[in-house]
Write a structure and sequence with these properties.
Layout lengths: L1 H8 L10 H21 L3 H27 L5 H42 L1
Helix pairs in contact: 1-2, 2-3, 3-4
């Protein structure tokens, strides 16, 4: 998705290079960057934190894509393609975050059960 965002924004007006172009590219690249950083951190709580940051970046990207569409910087087809990809990324992140939270809660329950038996 990030590569597609870079390609699509290459045709934005020159005066937007430090504005909307930069914002869209930064939000798009922030998603995989935060996932990678979370995977490289120590422990599941840190991973969950960075996945939530990635989700925020995905939401930011969705807004910037809508703004670019409203400013007629994208063709309707380009907008739909990128918007669909951003929505799919958010869906996948949401499922991953939910799974991690379930695992963390199960681990806590297991620890609490073990502690109460001791």
């Amino acid at each position: 998705m990030t590569l597609e965002v870079y390609k699509a924004t290459a045709h934005f007006p020159r005066e937007e290079i430090y504005g909307l172009t930069s914002q869209i590219r930064r939000a798009a690249s922030s998603i995989p960057t935060n996932i990678a950083e979370g995977c490289g951190r120590n422990g599941v709580p840190e991973l969950a934190r960075f996945l939530n940051i990635a989700m925020g970046s995905a939401s930011e990207l969705e807004y910037h894509l809508m703004l670019a569409r409203d400013l007629h910087f994208f063709s309707p087809e380009a907008y739909m393609s990128l918007s669909t990809e951003a929505s799919e990324v958010k869906r996948m992140l949401g499922a991953y975050i939910q799974k991690i939270n379930e695992d963390v809660n199960a681990h806590k329950s297991s620890l609490n059960a073990h502690t109460s038996k001791s």
